[in-house]
Amino acid sequence: PQVHIKAIQSLSKQSRCTPLYVLSPLLEMSKWSSKQLISLLFHSSTCFTNDNTLFYMFTGMNAAVRATVRVGIYTGAKVYFVHEVRMTYTHKTVLLTSYIFCQGGTVIGSARCKDFHTKEGRTKAACNLVKLGITNLCVIGGDGSLTGANEFRTEWSELLQILLKAGKITAEEARRSSHLNIVGMVGSIDNDFCGTDMTIGTDSALHRIIEVVDAITTTAQSHQRAFILEVMGRHCGYLALVSALASGADWVFIPEMPPDDGWEDHLCRRLANQRSLGYRLNVIIVAEGAMDRSGKPITCEMIKNLVTKKLGFDTRATILGHVQRGGTPSAFDRILGSRMGVEAVMALLEATPETPACVVSLSGNQAVRLPLMECVQVVRLQHFFNSHYSELKFQESALLLVLSFENNWNTYKLLAHVNPAEVKSNINIALMNVGAPCAGMNAAVRSAVRIGILQGHHMLAIHDGFEGLAHGNIEPISWASVGNWTGQGGSNLGTKRSLPASMMEEISLNIAKFNIHALVIIGGFEAFVGGLELVTGREKYEELCIPIVVIPATVSNNVPGSDFSVGADTALNTITSTCDRIKQSAAGTKRRVFIIETMGGYCGYLATMAGLAAGADAAYIYEEPFGIHDLEINVEHLVEKMKTTVKRGLILRNENCNSNYTTDFIFNLYTEEGKGVFDCRKNVLGHMQQGGTPSPFDRNFGTKMGAKAVLWLTDKLKECYRHGRIFANTPDSACVLGMRKRALVFQPLADLKSNTDFEHRIPKTQWWLKLRPILKILAKYKISLDISEKTALESVIKKRGTV
Question: Is residue 448 helix, strand or coil?
């Protein structure tokens, strides 16, 4: 039977519609009864399924634990750990969580708990909580953990009555523990939980995968081999899909999108075509839950035998397995875990007996609260669709509606599965890098070039920024020439900080000479200012009346119009890992404080976020002015901490935070005031923050930004075609492509001038400044936390939709 795609889409888009309402059309189009369908969806009436654990280990969990403990104690609460999910409890203090955030795994243990599957086990758990006076429970895990926690909360009153009748608790104890509040934090490397942009542990898993892919690539190139990598993801192909985007893999198999019939021949043609173009390697990524349209699993060994037999390629298969769950957490996961922990404590403190159980999620750069069971129901529905693909015979649109990563999938298909256009558009689009180099620039160039070629355009590379444009250092760039650029750091096109104002005439002449119809500028604040100067120059030079788009790419993350810049995540991970190593260098020695200077110009993004990720005691930035009194408070605070069991301190300083309180000054101040308690060391990280291979986020972000920029230019060129030529002089023909919360949006350069501090090269409003109080609370400062801006429960269905 045919699936009523439009009906399901309509039902899912209704703001007050619960996911279970989708069952009615499913019943009509399937052979199952209502009871069978519900059984398949939710597996059983108990709180856990056989393959779920209450807590599952993943990197980033310790950061959430640390934040929950510290903020809980900050608010005056008494905090306990539940060890190994076996009803053993330990009261925790701030000091016991000092160094856990940089560790992978979980310090409180993770285990399957069969006792919790039974009423007797949950009754015992309730008794333990009542005896300790615990009325708030924070659960970190996936849909199984959160479902069980909600079931525990639902039957809480019944469990109290059982304990009361058995004489295990008193009436007074039952009264004091009359209700149980529960807040969940989502932890899963699969990123398969509905309502959140990213789950704790996913980014770290991507780091492990990309590290392996990069290492394998060098071997594959040397021996001209094809490699097949299996990554985790039984029901969700997020890891496989994003890894394929970030590594430029030739093919990806994911559960959500079974390949068309005859995929074997298509795959072989694709690999053979790549070799004919001169590529020395092939990479295929397979999610462990991949299957064909008949429901038959697609395995690494199956693909290896296919490629070896039909093409004769030297082929190897690698199953990454639990490597993806381990290792040091990435900077993103540490910050995410910390933010979720803070929001979870606030949600518990604000909860009432009538408040439904909620889960703390990430939406763009905001922490939000969502109804726990509504999220779980959608996740179960997603898993159901993927597991019963062959019976339901679903179409792509329905599956993508369920999993909401259509943007990633469509970008990957464009870059990897479509042949270049045979009909040319006679449009020339030029690309350049401007400003300081950063990781991810090459990924943006690669996707822009390939999307442009797919649109039928001629793509031109401008070397050395605006100077290269003025001097005519321009040449065509082909599909094959950018083949391996995704994982390369720096700028292969070459980049300079020069601005176009002094070279406007030469630039206009070369735009006319090379017949450039549109321009992509990839860079930092210089790219933004250079774009503005080109727009201003339109009044005098008609050749500059072409569509222009600026893609923010800088470690400083200081480009107006975007919450994030390409390259900032890589720099942040570099700083965080360096801080870890620096602190570890003092292990076993006497107490020591490290003063570390970060880049960023006048923008304190790197110092603040690295402070959150590395557990800094203070982070000095330009946006938050400080004086000698503030420095005195910081020093005294650190001296008192060092008199306890704390042995290492970390102070971060943005390079331009204050012209008088330099890194040397702060180092000398802490050295003098810490005499007899601790000694000091200083480190200026310098240009190592701009180097290295791009992080998975920067590769993926740059790829999507480059693709979207060229697609936007293609549409804009059609609008600006007048009287046989391109003429673009409206404000919206020169834009910054930036990420705002959850969406990639185009904003006119002229409109962003009013929100820009040109003297200090920063936006006037910056979202991450709201995280500064969290940094201080986690460093154990007794400050007042502004909670006037409370987060309300949001509907999952309202939030869903593609970017």
Answer: helix
CA distance linking residue 766 with residue 357, whole number of Å: 32
Question: How many CB atoms are located within 10 Å of the residue 260 CB?
Answer: 9
The residues with which 523 forms a beta bridge, in sequence order, are 434, 552
Q: 3-class SS at 371?
A: strand
Region of residue 78 (phi > 0: left; psi between -120 and 50: alpha; otherwise: beta): beta
- Tokens 């002015």, residue located: 625
> Is the separation of the CB atoms in 368 and 794 below 8 Å?
yes
pLDDT of residue 18: 35
Among 300, 338, 305, which Cα is nearest to 100's? Answer: 338
- Residue by residue, DSSP assigns 48-81 as --TT--SS---TTHHHHHHHHHHHHHHTT---EE
Per-residue model confidence (pLDDT) at position 793: 61
Under DSSP, the state recorded for 258 is: P
Question: Which of 248, 267, 273 shows the shortest CA–CA distance to 309?
Answer: 267
- Count CB atoms within 10 A of the CB of residue 272: 15
Among 650, 637, 640, 636, which Cα is nearest to 586's? 650
- Is residue 258 within 8 A of residue 461, CB to CB? The reply is no
CB under 8 Å to 429, separation ≥6 — which residues?
Answer: 448, 452, 457, 458, 459, 460, 516, 517, 518, 519, 520, 710, 713
C-alpha distances in Å from residue 239, one per residue of 68, 207, 250, 440: 27, 10, 15, 19
For 684-724, write each residue's pLDDT tens digit: 999 999 989 999 999 999 999 999 999 999 999 999 988 77
d(CA 684, CA 436): 18
What is the b/e burial string over 569-595, where b = at least 16 CB atoms within 10 angstroms of the residue's CB? Answer: bbbbbbbbbbbbebbeebeeeebbbbb
Kindly calculate the radius of gyration of the chain based on its CA atoms and give it in whole angstroms.
Answer: 28
- Which of 527, 592, 580, 417 is CA-nearest to residue 761? 527
pLDDT digits (tens, 9 = 90+) for 242-252: 999 999 898 99
Residue 88, strand partner residues: 83
**Structural element, H or E, at residue 475:** strand 474-476
Which stretches of 590-722 are assigned E, i.e. beta strand?
592-598, 618-620, 648-654, 679-684, 721-722
Nearest to 341 by CA among 328, 360, 362, 325: 360
Which residues are within 8 A (CB) of 12 and not within 5 positions of it... i.e. 6 or more apart? 19, 22, 401, 797, 800
Residue 681 CA to chain centroid, in angstroms? 33
Alpha-carbon gap, residue 411 to 486, rounded angstroms: 14
Q: How far apart are the C-alpha atoms of 640 and 678, rounded to whole Å?
A: 11
Please check whether residue 65 is in contact with residue 333, taking contact to mean a CB–CB distance below 8 angstroms. Answer: no
Length of the chain (residues): 803
Backbone angles phi, psi at 475, to 5 degrees: -150, 155
Residue type, 630: D
| Residue in 10, 738, 803 with CA at minimum distance from that of residue 404 | 803
Please spell the DSSP secondary structure of 207-249, one letter per residue: HHHHHHHHHHHHHHHHHTEEEEEEE--SS--HHHHHHHHHHT-
Task: Return the pLDDT at 368.
Answer: 85
Indicate which residues carry an active-site annotation.
190
8 A C-beta contact, residue 104 and residue 93: no
**Which letter does DSSP use for residue 200 in this model?**
B
Phi, psi (deg, nearest 5) at residue 160: -65, -40
Strand, helix or coil for residue 628: helix
Q: Give, in degrees to the nearest 5, the angle at Cα 471 between 470 and 476.
A: 95
Residues of the chain scoring pLDDT < 70: 1-60, 84-99, 101, 105, 109-112, 380, 382-404, 417-419, 588, 784-803
In angstroms, the CA 282 to CA 336 distance is 34
Q: Which residues are registered as beta bridge partners of 231?
A: 287
Compute the distance between CA of residue 268 and CA of residue 749 in angstroms, rounded to an integer.
46
Backbone φ and ψ for 513, nearest 5 degrees, come out as -65, -45
What are the start-end ranges of the H helices in 388-503?
389-392, 396-403, 406-416, 441-454, 465-471
